[in-house]
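Shift notes (night). Ran Beta-xylanase while the centrifuge was going.
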Amino acid sequence: MKPGAVGGVGRRAALSAGAALSVAGLSGESAATELPLRERARRKGLLFGAAARSFNLRDDPAYAAAFARECGVLVTEWEAKWGPLRPTREEFSFGAVDALWQFARRHGLGFRGHALVWHEHMPRWIAGMENRAARGILEEHIRRVLARYPRAQSWDVVNEAIDLKDGRADGLRQTVWLRALGPTYVRDAFVLARAADPHTLLTYNDYGIEYEDRDSRAKRVAVLRLLESLRQQDAPVDVFGVQAHLNPARPFDPAALRGFLRGAAEMGFDIYITELDVHDRDLPADGARRDRIVADHAQAWLEAALSEPRVKAVFTWGLSDRYNWRNEVEWSRRRDGLPSRGLPLDQDLQPKPFWTAIARTLDGAEPRGR
Ligand code: G3I
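Came back to this:
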């Protein structure tokens, strides 16, 4: 795809779409929808944004307009991962990420890259990578990607490095990078990213740490230990990313969440809520009931998270039910076949109670120091 081919809507068009949004706002929803989430966040020194795929923005001008209106940051949901980006050892397939970058630049959005190091969706050729070549391959990847998108708002440098099921004392997930480079690969990736771009904020991102069940509690301990060890290794990590794929069926304790986030904040990390959405697979089929449960749970969780002053950003993992990854994966897809309603805008790009829940938590948040 030619860079710049995505969503040719200008800011004016986005705002006029926004005006339509305020007129067509939900009946009974008190939060006036004329003030987009990005503005509500900005007023508190926070960031709001969402993950996107280039082809959705390219092929759907109304969606592109809603995205440009609501979001202050664009997150690369798929196309900056190794699988789509690195078809061969020699090739970098930048076209789709270029289009996302151009969209962000055209609409004045921050650009958040995801993810420089992850274990999933790696290209087949990586399996044949010799250990002695791994550092050079990683260094070239990070250097070339960050050079192409200079001064990005932030990057997920390492994503989901902890998996206690793999049985290591340090909790590290058995990945191709751990096997090739040893446990210091996490630190190494951050050092390489900082060398490649001294300006972008560097994030360690993980999931399964949002609730009070045994697994979540155990993973929190391991994640905090990893963050502490990165601090001790002087790894240039700026931000801890909490993915926040929420599930109303799981046990939530606001005080415990606040304590966990405080633990990371006291190590000197800012915190981002990086992939907020709600798993509604097992919720009632009725849309209004489901929307209420999604919104109430998200509001309670976000209020607890945003009560931590070092939480500086909220990014949802998609903006509208019209394009929701949950409808594409078997384990998350609803058994009744109804589409997920776990994102802020509905299939018609209208704000749902979830949108209002985010608006209220942003409006109620304490202003952040600049
Ligand atoms: O774009 C291609 C399309 O050309 C092709 O025809 C189609 C059929 O294979 O695949 C399309 O790519 C899909 C892509 O999403 C874009 O829709 C991939 O198959 C699919 O695997 C990919 O799934 C992504 C998934 O991560 C795996 O990378 C989801 O979009 C994305 O939302 C999801 O995001 C992850 C985060 O990276 C990490 N945290 C969890 C989160 C949810 O699983």
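The CA atoms of residues 131 and 180 lie 4 Å apart. The first strand starts at residue 47 and ends at 52.
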